[in-house]
Each structure stands twice: as structure tokens, then as C-alpha cells.
Design brief:
Helix content is about 40%, strand content about 20%. By secondary structure, the chain is an alpha+beta fold. The protein has one domain. The protein has a 4-stranded mixed beta sheet. It has a two-stranded antiparallel sheet with strand order 1-2.
Length: about 200
């Protein structure tokens, strides 16, 4: 005859094993539901050569829906086109930081900026930026205004800006901001003034 305390011990162990199995099954389901964090696949670029300069970045703040001028120190090369690219890369770095007031999707990057005379700048962004951008009129408007205003405030002579995605025209940024046309810098200046006055 098996002693009673052995039955009790076996019962407790059986309940513990079943409980652990259910817990492991539950945790496995939760782990599968958690989205996998995307890794930053951008290539590592050589450091920018050039003196550090004070620039003005126009930073979007989603929580209050405004655009604010913010001074920053960044190294800038002497070539005008490379200066434009580094300006926008500095803006993107601010937006990709953990404490960003206007988060961009991971991996967002400026592929290139082309300065075409007279007064046209073409910004070519990567697919990660456009495909992962949050949809919404204000969010998209803030992004476009931030890019155009930062570029035009620091690179004189820019009158119009065109935004491409992976070198190709795209209808909208994330469903609202129309990327099929050129952005008039004077109109963006007015929009920026309105966004700043709503503080």
C-alpha cells in the first residue's frame, strides 16, 4: 500500500507541472504577439568633415501640434549639396532619438538632396521613412514643413522643394500630405508662422 503523504506529494507535483506548462504556453503566445523590433540597417557613413556650425532646425512637436525653431551645432561640409544633406540628417537624428517630440519610423534616412538651379531642392528619402510614417494630416504636415523649413532657412536661394521616396515620385506621404507636387517655400513659411503662433 502506498502511503497517503506520497499521494499528496505526487498530486502537488502534478499540479505544479501542469501549472508551469500552462504558464509556458501562455508566455509563448504573448511572445509571439510582441512585434519584433526592426534593426537599423542603414550603412555606417564616414564622419562629416568640416567645421562645426550653428544651424536652425525647425522641429515638430506632436503633443501640441507646433513647429519651433531650435538652434543646433553640427559639422557641415563646404559643398552646398552636402550641407543640405547633413542638415536634414541632423534633423532626422533628432527625430529618431528616444525622447523625440516627433518620432519617425526606425531606419528613416535622407538618401540624398539635389540642389537644382534656379531655386529647386529635391529631397530623396528612403522607403522606411515613408512606409512607416504615422498617418494623419497634422503629423504629415508637420514633417513636410519641418523638412522644407529647415532646408530653406539654412541654404539660401531655395524657392521650391520636391520630396521623392527611393528616387521615385509618390502620391502621398502616409495618405494625406500630397508629395506629387512641389512645395512652395513661401507657402511653407506662412504655414510655419501659423504653427508657431498656435503655441
Amino acid at each position: 500500500m502506498i502511503p497517503r503523504h506520497l499521494y499528496i506529494a505526487l498530486s502537488i507535483m502534478l499540479v505544479a507541472v501542469l501549472s508551469m506548462g500552462l504558464y509556458a504556453w501562455h508566455m509563448r503566445g504573448r511572445a509571439a504577439a510582441v512585434p519584433v523590433a526592426s534593426t537599423d540597417t542603414r550603412p555606417v557613413e564616414p564622419p562629416v568633415s568640416g567645421p562645426t556650425e550653428r544651424v536652425t532646425l525647425f522641429v515638430a512637436y506632436d503633443d501640441i501640434g507646433v513647429l519651433r525653431a531650435q538652434s543646433a551645432q553640427t559639422p557641415l561640409p563646404s559643398v552646398r549639396q552636402q550641407r543640405a544633406e547633413e542638415l536634414l540628417k541632423a534633423l532626422f537624428a533628432l527625430y529618431l532619438a528616444k525622447s523625440s517630440p516627433h518620432p519617425l519610423p526606425p531606419g528613416s534616412d535622407v538618401r540624398s538632396v539635389y540642389l537644382v538651379d534656379p531655386g529647386l531642392a529635391v529631397i530623396d528619402v528612403n522607403a522606411a521613412f515613408a512606409d512607416g510614417h504615422r498617418s494623419g494630416v497634422l503629423s504629415e504636415e508637420l514633417t513636410v514643413a519641418s523638412l522644407v523649413q529647415t532646408l530653406s532657412a539654412n541654404i539660401p536661394g531655395i524657392l521650391k522643394v520636391k520630396i521623392l521616396v527611393e528616387g521615385k515620385q509618390r502620391e502621398t506621404l502616409a495618405g494625406h500630405a500630397d508629395l506629387s507636387n512641389f512645395f512652395d517655400v513661401a507657402a511653407i513659411n506662412q504655414l510655419t508662422t501659423q504653427l508657431q503662433s498656435t503655441q
